[in-house]
Amino acid sequence: MKQLNLVLLWHMHQPDYRDYVTNEFVLPWVYLHAIKDYTDMAYHLEMHPRTKAVINFVPVLLDQLEDFSTQFSTGEIRSPLLRLLATPDLEHISIQDRLYVFDSCFLSNHTTMLQPYPAYKRLHELYQIFNKRSESELTYFSGQYLADLLVWYHLAWMGESVRRNNEFVMKLMAQSQGFSYENRLQLFNLIGELIRELIPRYRKLAESGQIELSTTPHYHPLAPLLIDFTSARDSQPGVALPEHQLYPGGRSRVAFHLASAISSHTQRFNEKPTGIWPAEGALSSALLKIFAEQNCQWSASGEGVLANSLQASYPDASLPDRTEYLYRPYQVDGESGQVICFFRDDQLSDLIGFEYAKWFGRDAAENFIQSLERIYHGTPAGENPVVSVILDGENAWESYPYNGFYFLDDLYGLLENHPFIRTTTYRNYIADTEKTNMIRILPTLAAGSWVYGTFSTWIGDKEKNHAWDMLCAAKQSFDLVMQSDRLSEEKKIEASRQLASCESSDWFWWFGDYNPAHSVASFDHLFRLNLMNLYRLLKLPVPPALQQSISKGNEQNEASSAMRRSS
Questions:
Q1: Where are the beta strands (DSSP E) in 4-59?
Q2: What is the dihedral of CA 466, 471, 472, 475, to 10 degrees?
Q3: HSE-CB for 165 with a 13 A CA cutoff
Q4: What tens digit of pLDDT does each residue of 152-208 get?
């Protein structure tokens, strides 16, 4: 009997927010997403044991989660917001700490994470009254106000599964104000407990066979560009490129990120990953060849990459209806042919990422199922289509009421009981379909990403290209120092780790005038700080250009841009 194979791939990623010189976490997003999204995503799978999924963890996220676990175990907290939550006397903290609390504790989607809570909303209204007058008047806020604000911010970022099942959290939310130091300390300890439990929870889901765990090159580099800037011209022939012709030694750096990811994944989960989700779904033939060298069985990208590749492969033919080419696996002709490639349904993925947050959860879940049923009926009778839905496992839920609780609960429930839709994983699908004729050969792979099928989010405009040139210059210095006797082996390892963090795709994502100014400022600062730290580790003078911001962002655009539509 014909069936539709559905692969849900939830991609879990945060860039490295650590300053390697001070060891401080510059931004709190790792632990906040941990208590909100990574807990909830595990919970929904635990509640629906017949629903299968692929969970992709970027190793640098897992490194940071383990770092937080260690902080809670040792009591040496290196995240300012957490430290303040557990500070006994908030009445006498410094003006810098006060301003940090105010700057941090209202950063969220106010529609879903502030306005539903009257006490938290009132704290925000009071802040706005004083903030409109002058910064100095913020000193009039009492330690009790700061305590209530810190508690409410962490409650707003708490996973819905925790809010519904943890009696202490229910009690705090009912109390609503006047939180004591004991309340704050208990909340602080709960956060530590939730983070410590995360990796074991996902490991258990993997051991049961319900999920497949995949990985990404370690620090989330935009690998095709590290290998070859001109790969951007596969999808945008006229795109402007950085002044440097290429990133020095890029291929070996990508191989390093991949080998490091496979090694750390194997240590954490007691098995090698079968597949690799490349950072940003960014694929090229050269990258697939590196995956093949590491015996990777599968990889995936966006629908736009497949469409561009088919048009490049068959330039005289017009693209057929997407039901005729999208819902099957491919192998790229040539040396990387052993890697099976899947391409996501951009429309379905974007519905979850951007549209369904505006719907009632049940309606959205039913609409998603109906869309799958249309695909099932629209594909040839003799084929069992494989539909890939791939998106961030953390950033979408902030826009949903109740962190997407009702949508995910209804969606997984409907999928568990569906007569012909089967949730599966890529590893299971490959094992089941080895002897079928579903796999097609793709003569040419046009390099691109899951955003627009291009690399325009990371390269091509003046600011992004300037950032690449800064990185290229730093890499040239790195190579010269590494070939000398200037550094000890231990310092060389530190410098290599610092370089890897500089190579993350996230910095380039945020440069540009279409992103909100406050986010751009944070990531601009952190990118330049990483480069400065690299020069210091190499015992070289820091170039003066690194004191100047690269990008200002857009003051008018306050919406979060941590995700981007595919088209």
A1: 4-12, 53-57
A2: 170
A3: 12
A4: 999 999 999 999 999 999 999 999 999 999 999 999 999 999 999 999 999 999 999
Strand partners, 340: 298, 331
Closest CA to 115 of 102, 124, 127: 124
**Cβ atoms of 311 and 364 closer than 8 Å:** no
Angle at 388 between CA 299 and CA 501, to 5 degrees: 45
Distance from C-alpha of 421 to C-alpha of 6, rounded to nearest angstrom: 7
Q: Is 38 exposed, middle or buried (0-12, 13-18, 19+ CB in 10 A)?
A: buried
Instruction: Choose among 282, 389, 281, 291: nearest CA to 340.
Output: 291
Q: What is the dihedral of CA 92, 149, 171, 360, to 10 degrees?
A: -170
Token digits for 320?
Answer: 């057929």
Could you report the per-residue pLDDT of 468-516, keeping only the tens digit for each? 999 999 999 999 999 998 999 999 999 999 999 999 999 999 998 778 8
Q: Is 529 helix (H, G, I), strand (E, B) or coil?
A: helix
**pTM score, whole prediction:** 0.96
Determine contact, residues 149/123, Cβ cutoff 8 Å.
yes
Q: Measuring CA to CA, how many Å separate 90 from each of 63, 179, 220, 339, 371?
A: 31, 12, 38, 56, 52
Which one-letter amino acid corresponds to residue 395?
N
At residue 141, what are phi and psi to the nearest 5 degrees? -70, 135
SS3 annotation, 275-318: EECCHHHCECHHHHHHHHHCCCCEEEECHHHHHHHHHHHCCCCC
The sign of the CA dihedral 26, 32, 34, 38 is: negative
Pairing of strands 211-214, 275-276: unpaired
- Quick one: which of 190, 166, 184, 185 has its CA closest to 43? 166
Whole-number Å distance between alpha carbons of 402 and 236: 40
Helix axes 59-74, 250-269, angle to 10 degrees: 50
- Over its C-alpha atoms, the chain yields an Rg (Å, rounded) of 24
